[in-house]
Amino acid sequence: MADQSSWKEYEDRIAAARSAEELAAIEHEIFSRKSGTMTLALKELQTIAPEQRRTVAQELNEWKKKLEERLENRKKELASPSDESLKRDEAIDVTLELPGKERGHLHLIPEFIRKVEEVFGRMGFDIASGPEIETEEFNFNLLNIPRDHPARDMQDTFWIKSKNQEGRLLLRTQTSPMQVRYMQSHKPPLRVIAPGKVYRKDSDATHSPMFHQFEGLMIGKDITLANMKAVMITAIRELTFPDAEFRFRTGFFPFVEPGLEVDMRWRGDEAESREGRWLEVVGCGMVHPNVLKNCGIDPKKWQGFAFGFGVERMIMIKHQIPDLRSFYQGDLRFLRQF
Ligand code: DAH
Q1: Which protein residues touch ligand 1 with a CB less than 6 Å away?
Q2: For labelling alongside 68, which of 86, 109, 217, 298 has CA 20 to 30 A away?
Q3: Ligand 1: which of 157, 174, 183 to mutate, most ligand atoms within 8 Å of CB?
Q4: 12-24, pLDDT tens digit by residue?
Q5: Which residue has its alpha carbon closest to ligand 1 atom 13?
Q6: 1: pLDDT confidence band, cut at 50, 70 and 90?
Q7: What is the percent of the chain with per-residue pLDDT over 70, rounded to a whole number?
Q8: Side-chain half-sphere of 193: how many Cα atoms within 13 Å?
Q9: What is the dihedral of CA 260, 226, 187, 291, to 10 degrees?
Q10: Closest residue to atom 10 of ligand 1, CA basis
Q11: What predicted TM-score, i.e. pTM, was given to this entire model?
């Protein structure tokens, strides 16, 4: 007949069971009608001398109750694990050193975006993020790019078949819609950057169908082009090199007036650079009065600047990476260099 230690063993096995199936097998072993250890032990009671039967029966019934309870509890735990059981069963020692294996690290892009947040954070900018599936309204119309405007063609758009109540949907081609979203939900004065992914039908050494930008916006009573230049120069130097070489050129973007572009000088072998000596990395300018109006901000009282940086392009300059597609190929030999 089963003794104390075998009941104790069942108790331990129930606690250690990892699945409902395992638990059911143990339950069967103890309680099955024909051959269950407990079933048999209870039957055997009749063969025991009457003077001992009482104590043995009492003991058996206690174990019976206890094991039934344990089975019930463990069943519940396995169905929806408690914090305690998760800690016990699912614990992974993340500090474990794998001998000979290298450590992981951030990919170049998120690492750079962290740096961007730090640099602009120091200049008093907030950080915002918005949807990658945008409406035509935010991505174009409210940014002073109406439907028939030729500037629409500058950004080859991935359209989405379905619409929502606000109109046609697309994968945002730029982070600029975040200017509108932020100005509609915050009162000036304001200072914000919005990093994120953008999408265009484009692929070559300096273009990818998905890439990263960060948008910036600063609105106040007397913010001027000079403030913009100062912020651009500080950001470029901090994000690449203290002695970075760059140039400002006039450029056209419907949502700013005047508009400028900033090119950075390629530092590596010029033969390697597909775009030549200069690579365009930033578009910027003074926010167009129409855009301010579209956001409910009075252009007679407020003015400011906006800018959009190409993240991959900044990193290409910084690390002399000639082909932007290397970022996405997941080649460890490339990733390990940084
Ligand atoms: N959104 C523009 C692009 O993707 C870049 C840009 C230009 C952003 C000028 C701006 C700006 O905020 O003022 O080409």
Answers
A1: 174, 176, 215, 253, 256, 259, 283-285, 306-308
A2: 86
A3: 174
A4: 999 999 888 999 9
A5: 284
A6: low
A7: 99
A8: 24
A9: -30
A10: 307
A11: 0.72
